[in-house]
Specification:
Elements: E1 4-9, H1 15-28, E2 33-38, E3 48-50, E4 56-58, E5 60-62, H2 68-78, E6 83-86, H3 94-107, E7 111-116, H4 126-134, E8 137-140, E9 143-144, E10 150-151, E11 153-157, E12 163-164, E13 176-179, H5 181-184, H6 186-189
Parallel strand pairs: 1-7, 1-8, 2-5, 2-6, 6-7
Antiparallel strand pairs: 3-4, 9-10, 11-12, 11-13
Helix pairs in contact: 2-3, 3-4
């Protein structure tokens, strides 16, 4: 029975490497896969899934308005597809996450999504929010903060290596570092308005 999977982590946990390994495992067994990646991430060329260790595969680059259910249904009708894999899934629109649930439920094709949960302020990405709510299986890929604790957040750094606390949610690049919640200092970074009351 097909399922919708969301593999999530902080930066540098090997999400793209894990995706490419899964893709290889399917193809090695003679199965057909489709890889999707957002068009806005073209650091390694458009329509490519690339890991930091140098593995790479061709993918279908999508815009937020693209219908992933219709694209998959059309290609599946031409030749059966055994698995859909989505890189940088945090950039999916809510509608696209819904479309992927239909790929699973109506076409009976497993969908494996890989992405970040939160941005540099600790705020959830739209795609991730709906994947966390709707996926059949949630799998955390773990990585480590420089403090030795488990890293669950992503801090953005400027060109001098200093922490950035303001800016657009999406800023593609390698200027991020994975941190534990304590090191990230969520109460200072989050846009949620709260100050710790003085102890009387």
């Amino acid at each position: 029975m097909a399922k919708l999977y969301f593999y999530y982590s902080a930066m540098n946990a090997g999400k793209s490497t894990t995706l490419l390994q899964s893709d290889y495992n399917y193809r090695e067994r003679g199965m057909r896969t489709l890889l999707f990646t957002p068009r806005l991430d073209d650091r390694f060329g458009e329509a490519k899934v690339t890991s930091r260790i140098g593995l790479q595969a061709d993918a279908i680059a999508f815009h937020p308005e693209d219908d992933l259910f219709v694209q998959t249904r059309g290609r599946h009708g031409e030749q059966p597809i055994n698995c859909i894999l989505v890189d940088e899934a945090q950039f999916l629109s809510p509608a696209q996450v819904l479309q992927l649930t239909l790929v699973v439920d109506r076409l009976d094709i497993p969908v494996l999504c890989y992405g970040l949960r939160t941005d540099f302020r600790g705020e959830p990405f739209e795609g991730s929010k709906y994947l966390l709510a709707w996926a059949d299986s949630l799998v955390e890929l773990k990585t480590v903060c420089s403090t030795g604790r488990k890293a669950t957040f992503n801090a953005r750094l400027d060109s001098d290596g200093k922490r950035e606390l303001k800016g657009d949610q999406i800023d593609i690049g390698h200027h991020y570092v994975a941190m534990s919640r304590k090191a990230f200092d969520l109460a200072r970074v989050s846009p949620i308005d709260y100050e710790v009351p003085e102890d009387k």
